[in-house]
């Protein structure tokens, strides 16, 4: 490019006016301005370009992570909706069957009562008709007797004919029990009113709306917070509990004194919680060193060196393995290395030479389980919730949170 004023090559950059100039411009119009060669300016801008590019790449990685997380949330939402529809259909079918059964029972009860009352009434009708016939017969005999001229016959017959026949109790009303029909009708009416009121209040719709909310912020997750307590009968003897049994520390080679118990992990430094989690549950822990953050069926083996006892190495458990340098996920002895790079708590520096991962502060980790939807998710908890890993499966038993604490000095704290 040529300077239009001096017809010279533009090879100088004026920082003051932010434009390219020629050498003669530096002693004329741009005298005393901050000027550098185009090459120097290029070098400086090249550094800025790298910084901008790095910022864009980090933003792309985060947006791709957000995109993946949203896609997983959509799929999880669809699965939850499908499960909710199936459960609702099943429950409503059972409810309809229950109502039909109650209707049939009420109808049968009324019919049985009707049959009993009518049968009793027909017996009374028969007795009354018989009594009327007897009375008419005696009345006719008395009429005939009144005309006899034989005094002896009159006196002998009158004694037997004047005695009244056995009378049917007219106060015994066989239909007095029909008044109980009012109670049946009132019970059915109350049931109908309760169902109508329930539907008018839209309780079901309100509950569906609440259950479909997908947690996004930490406050969203904390709505499902679950306080955990450690099962002292499961803790391995190389683990020490402190701070009211809220902190687990590896004490190898120091052995703790715990009584024998069939539920205790006798080889691996692991412990389970006492509470099972169901529905949607969330909890947080702080950790350091080398630990496993896990969920497990209660049926996991506790004795011996086999994989059936190790969190994540069998089909009974799922485990996020955490260390100061890496994360990985294990289930059924299949390990998946995760592109997550922990930030050093001491220096605040993330070392990621490949630039393929996401950097997270590993001081606090959140775990979210949606048992019905079959999702298990791990998050790095700080000002924002960063997804570390999520898995979709089908849980067939209640889940128990568990922790493996390995290497001397490693620890886990229940928050």
TrEMBL record:
SMART domains assigned to the protein according to its UniProt record, in alphabetical order: BBOX (SM00336), PRY (SM00589), SPRY (SM00449)
This protein's UniProt keywords: Coiled coil, Metal-binding, Zinc, Zinc-finger
Domain of life: Eukaryota
A Pfam family annotated for this UniProt entry: TRIM_CC
Coiled coil: 53-145
PROSITE patterns the record matches: B302_SPRY (PS50188), ZF_BBOX (PS50119)
Domain B box-type: 1-38
GO molecular function, one term: zinc ion binding
InterPro entries the record matches: B30.2/SPRY, B30.2/SPRY_sf, Butyrophylin_SPRY, ConA-like_dom_sf, E3_ubiq-ligase_TRIM/RNF, PRY, SPRY_dom, TRIM8/14/16/25/29/45/65_CC
GO cellular component: cytoplasm
Chain ranges of the B30.2/SPRY domain: 208-415
Alphabetized SUPFAM superfamilies for the sequence: B-box zinc-binding domain (SSF57845), Concanavalin A-like lectins/glucanases (SSF49899)
Protein name (database record): Tripartite motif-containing protein 16
Native organism: Phoxinus phoxinus
């Amino acid at each position: 490019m040529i300077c239009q004023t001096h017809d010279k090559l533009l090879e100088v950059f004026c920082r003051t006016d932010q434009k390219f100039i020629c050498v003669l411009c530096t002693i004329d119009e741009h005298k005393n301005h901050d000027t550098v060669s185009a090459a120097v300016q290029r070098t400086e801008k090249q550094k800025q370009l790298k910084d901008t590019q790095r910022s864009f790449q980090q933003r792309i990685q985060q947006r791709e992570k957000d995109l993946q997380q949203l896609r997983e949330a959509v799929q999880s939402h669809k699965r939850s909706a499908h499960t909710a529809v199936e459960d609702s259909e099943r429950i409503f079918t059972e409810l309809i069957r229950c109502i039909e059964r109650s209707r049939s029972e009420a109808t049968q009860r009324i019919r049985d009562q009707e049959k009993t009352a009518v049968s009793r009434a027909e017996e009374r009708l028969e007795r009354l008709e018989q009594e009327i016939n007897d009375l008419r017969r005696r009345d006719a005999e008395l009429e005939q007797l009144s005309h006899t001229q034989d005094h002896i016959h009159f006196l002998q017959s009158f004694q037997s004919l004047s005695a009244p026949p056995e009378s049917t109790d007219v106060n015994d009303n066989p239909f007095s029990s029909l008044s109980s029909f009012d109670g049946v009708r009132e019970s059915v009416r109350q049931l109908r009113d309760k169902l109508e009121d329930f539907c008018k209040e839209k309780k079901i719709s309100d509950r569906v709306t609440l259950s479909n909310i997908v947690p996004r912020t930490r406050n969203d997750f904390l709505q499902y917070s679950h306080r955990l307590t450690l099962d002292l009968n499961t803790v391995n003897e190389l683990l020490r509990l402190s701070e009211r049994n809220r902190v687990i520390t590896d004490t190898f080679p120091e052995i703790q004194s715990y009584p024998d118990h069939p539920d205790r992990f006798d080889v691996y430094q692991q412990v389970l919680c006492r509470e099972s989690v169901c529905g949607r549950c969330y909890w947080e822990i702080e950790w350091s060193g080398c630990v496993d953050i896990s969920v497990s069926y209660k049926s996991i083996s506790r004795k011996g060196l086999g994989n059936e006892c190790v969190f994540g190495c069998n089909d009974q458990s799922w485990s996020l393995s955490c260390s100061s340098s890496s994360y990985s996920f294990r289930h059924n002895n299949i390990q998946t290395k995760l592109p997550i790079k922990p930030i050093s708590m001491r220096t605040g520096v993330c070392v990621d030479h490949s630039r393929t991962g996401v950097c997270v502060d590993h001081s606090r980790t959140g775990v979210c389980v949606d048992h019905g939807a079959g999702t298990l998710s791990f998050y790095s908890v700080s000002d924002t919730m960063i997804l570390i890993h999520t898995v979709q499966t089908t849980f067939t038993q209640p889940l128990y949170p568990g922790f493996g604490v390995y290497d001397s000095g490693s620890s886990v704290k229940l928050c």
